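Title: Prediction job returns without error message
Component: structure pipeline
Severity: low
Priority: P3
Assignee: unassigned

Description:
Job completed but the reporter wants confirmation the result is attached to the right record. Sequence as submitted:
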Amino acid sequence: MKTGTAFMLAAATAVVAGGLSYRFARAGASATARPAAVAPAATGSAFVPPPDSTMPNDEFGKMVRLGQQIFRHTAAYAPQYTGNGLSCANCHIDAGRLAHSAPLWAAYVSYPAYRSKNKHVNTLQERMQGCFRYSMNGKAPPLGDSVLVALESYAYWLATGAPVNKPIAGRNYPKLPAPAQAPDFARGAQLFSQHCAVCHGADGQGQRAAGVLVFPPVWGPESFNWGAGMGDVDKAAGFVKANMPLGLGNTLSDQDAWDVALFVDSHERPQDPRFAGSVEQTRTRYHDSAMSMYGKTVNGVQLGRHSVPSGGSTRPGATPR
């Protein structure tokens, strides 16, 4: 217990002070400095975004820095659009830099693009609107809002030198091969207790240090809602495999990643904001996939039936959306 607590506190300190998810821009960069990016090698290695020290010292640089802060501390910098305490950097590790963690630089060069989720071509700002609505369990900022402009500016800067309209290594969470055994709740529970609970809590509700959320809740009323992509077991498994435990990505087996993902996604969370009147209708319309646990019965409980409303209206002091 002492060892686990010490690890959690050390990890929390690293996250807050400047570890995997928080790297603060250095002051004093030249106003004319250009980001030094590393293009992907012929072997398909992932693109490397420019260092923070090369952010420009001008009006555009101010917007880039604001976007970075919103990305790292979303609930603090965009509270009017968030319904939980999560930050973009919780799912896009190292402030959107890390390959195989759906990095922000890859998103910038991948949009506009057609999305089957809403059945039309999305701009990057539209894609980010979805993140606020589903992952942040909030509401979409209007197109052109300063929050979206700042995030898009940060993405543009991170993508300096990245190839456009070409396959780019590390763009998404990895797509894992089908598991040898069907993903299992009980195995996932054991793995979660062993590898995940020290940060996310035995109850999955995350951890705070000095009142600041440093490890996110992975289910429950303060987590992402049922409309978020992380609610799909295959996407969650890819994220877990490449990025979890934090700083120890690719140490779990593929089977372990599938089992943990199923376990996490087999818990209640806020309702899908597209709720169609019943769990059955909502599943038919939006979750008709073997990878979605929404509407399935786990341990005698139909998931989605007892979800709190989407939008964060159940949070103490929150304004209903």
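Comment from assignee: result matches the submitted record. The first helix runs from residue 2 to 17.
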